[in-house]
Amino acid sequence: MLRSLQIRNLAIIDALELEFADGFSVLTGETGAGKSILIDALGLLIGGRAEATLVRAGAERAEISAEFELTDSPAARAWLESRELADGDTCLIRRTLGADGRTRAFVNGSPLNAGDLRGLGERLVEIFGQGESAQLLRMEAQRDALDEFGVPAAQRQAVAAAAATVAEVDAEIARLSAAQSRDPAQLEYLRFQLQELDALALSEGELETLDAEQRRLANAGRLIEEGAAVQSALYGGDASAYDQLGSVLGLLRGLLPLHEDFAEVENLVATAQAQLRDAADAVRRELDHLELDPERLQTVERRLGVIHDLARKHRVRAADLAARHAELRSELGGLENAGEQLAALTARRANALAAYRKAAGALTRAREQHSGQLAEAVTARVRELGMPNARFVVAVEPAGRDTPNAHGDDLVRFDFSANPGQPPRSLAKVASGGELSRVSLALQVSLHGAGISAGDAAATMIFDEVDAGIGGAVAEIVGQQLRALGARRQVLCVTHLAQVAAQGRQHFSIAKEVVAGETYTRVTPLNADRRVIELARMLGGQHLSAATQALAKDLLKRARAG
Question: How many Å apart are CA 313 and CA 194, to the nearest integer?
């Protein structure tokens, strides 16, 4: 979970350092004070899109950094360990944004690209705003929410794998079908190319052997002449190295009676003389096998010429000619046996399709089983949020697709009715903005409140004014639900409602101030007394009265009692 956040030169924030506690924290302030900037900063930190306009005027760059505790984030810890970025139970993320729009990100001191940063960020933080509520209108988001609620990941993965297998077989069938329709002249040319390579009969390792032999035959004269000079210099020639070492050896043996320590030197020289003799013998043996053979040289060069000509014809390196030969043989064999292969592939597709239908059917049954449970949980929570007659229904219907799909054969649709006597209809058609915010909040509490997907879910959840359109007693219930959610996750909420803010364990006030013509955002952790004042402001405006302060105290008292 998020432990600390530092921001430098971002929009109207010049310098900011915050520390966060467990549970439910709230951020409040006047419109335009900078609450959204904090959310933007966290979004940037976890891989969100960066724009140069966010850099504070006059600054060269903005910088955001944060420390996360990984005790409750096994998915993030595993992600870091898989990339050798882990550093104990904490994760330090730092991102800079230059005035020129360039960004850099670092995780535990190591650089990271934006794509990988998003991969890590989604395992650390989930941000829910009014935009996310709007996303709930998408049927894909509704399907994913139902799956997250209780459908085992293994079932979803099995369907995706089975659909991929069918797609692979379909692609191979399409390839062979296209091959069967090729121009007969192309097929005949393929046979001709293969016959040329068959006639070449290039054996394994032959090219390397021919290259070595060509070099030896082409340089035979030099090898014989200079090799003989080497042998003569080593042994047998005038003033050869062998004879010179023999003279040295004679001198040493004359010195031995005078100084016995020369014995070791004598042995070394004698050994060197023997090695010279061995080296000369080795040269002689090589020379015995060398001879000028222009006919063999011509044969070898002719063979190499044929190999390289064919390689150029096939547009490959000579060393890759054997691989090209095998490729052509496989291609021709596949074309000539396309009918048999298509029959085999058709049978394979039938089996793959049957496996997909079985997996997709199991997924459908799992979705149908959990749809009622999710509908019941969301309905109960929506009714607590001031809509006592609301009904939330999760419909699972056949998609009617012609081809297997990685997500199965179902369409998942959320239906909703807020009023008695009105049948539930598609959420996208009937929910107002305020109703949608409540449904979104109820859904998130339902998904996370029971600890579902706890191993994969982010430990920190941020709600950005999801209580829009809510007020009165309902707002207090919203706060209670967020506080209850805070018992299992770290929850941060930007709110304009005093009833919600009173439920927070930690309260930050966000305000603007102008100093020497410059605007700054200030964020202040509130103690008990200042919290009463902030809640009174939210209830009654800037002119605080004893009544609004008494109401603020009462809200805090009820929150503590709950």
Answer: 12
pLDDT, position 449: 56
pTM attached to this predicted model: 0.60
Please report whether residue 379 resides in a domain: no
How many residues are listed for the chain in this entry? 562
Total domains, the chain: 2
Q: Angle CA(454)–CA(457)–CA(462) in degrees, nearest 5?
A: 125
User: Same structural domain for residues 189 and 332?
Assistant: yes
> 487 to each of 412, 448, 450, 490, how far by Cα in Å?
30, 11, 11, 8
Contact between 360 and 404 (Cβ < 8 Å): yes
Mean pLDDT value across residues 469-492: 83
Mean pLDDT of 77-100: 93
Rounded Cα–Cα distance for residues 32 and 35 (Å): 7
Clarify whether residues 108 and 188 are in a common domain: no
- Is the residue at 464 inside a domain? yes
DSSP track, 82-105? HTT--BTTEEEEEEEEETTS-EEE
Kindly tell me if the per-residue pLDDT of 455 is higher than 80.
no
For 423-432, the pLDDT digits (tens) are 999 987 876 7
Q: Which CA distances in Å does 202 have to 181, 301, 323, 561?
A: 32, 15, 11, 89
| Dihedral of the alpha carbons of 84, 86, 92, 93, in degrees to the nearest 10 | 40
Residue 404 pLDDT more than 60? yes
**Residue 203 carries which DSSP code?**
P
Among 524, 532, 527, 540, which residue's Cα sits nearest to residue 556? 532
pLDDT(334) > 70? no
Residues with Cβ within 8 Å of 559's Cβ and at least 6 positions away in sequence, in order, are 479, 483, 502, 503
Tell me the average pLDDT across 335-352. 80
C-alpha distances in angstroms, 172 versus 80, 180, 186, 327, 342? 38, 12, 20, 17, 9
Range of the domain at 520: 1-126+458-525
